[in-house]
Amino acid sequence: MIYMKKYKYLGKSQKDSFCIKGVDLFLKKWQTVGDCAIVVDPETKNTYGFSVYKVEMGDKSIHFAAGKNKQGEWLFFDAE
Predict the structure, then answer these.
(1) Closest CA to 78 of 64, 68, 67
(2) Is 4 contained in some domain?
(3) Which H or E element spans position 29?
(4) How far apart are CA 39 and CA 47, in angstroms?
(5) Are strands 60-68 and 31-40 parallel, antiparallel or unpaired?
(6) What is the four-CA torsion angle of 5, 19, 49, 43, rounded to 10 degrees?
(7) Are the C-beta atoms of 53 and 33 separated by less than 8 Å?
(8) CB atoms < 10 A from the CB of 28, how many?
(9) pTM for the full model?
(10) pLDDT tens figures, 16-66
(11) pLDDT single digits (tens) 1-12
């Protein structure tokens, strides 16, 4: 049996600014974690394969999947 993780849609951004848990991701260094997330844009129903990233703040980190859709907007998904 193949299990596919469901990634929760967090939102989109047309600019280089998006916050998760009060942290603007575009002000942090994104580190790839080596995973690929298959996600569905809830508005268009298009499927994308996005990389999973993490940003670190001291002893805490935020994991998320992100990439651009066909319109050039950033889409963000929870990968915690």
Answers:
(1) 64
(2) no
(3) none
(4) 6
(5) unpaired
(6) 90
(7) yes
(8) 14
(9) 0.90
(10) 899 999 999 999 999 999 999 999 999 999 999 999 999 998 899 999 999
(11) 445 578 999 999
Distances in Å between the alpha carbon of 73 and those of 1, 21, 36, 63, 68? Answer: 34, 20, 19, 19, 5
Q: Which residues have C-beta within 8 Å of that of residue 32, sequence separation ≥ 6? A: 51, 52, 53
* Paired tokens of 5: 């993780």
Residue 77 corresponds to which tokens in the numbers above? 């998904």
Contacts of 68 (CB under 8 A, 6+ apart): 74, 75
Domain count, the chain: 1
| Among candidate residues 26, 24, 25, 75, the one with its CA nearest the CA of residue 47 | 75
Contacts of the segment 58-61: beta carbons below 8 A, 24+ positions apart: none
Determine the structural domain holding residue 16 and report its residue range. 12-78
- For residue 56 the two structure tokens come to 């670190």
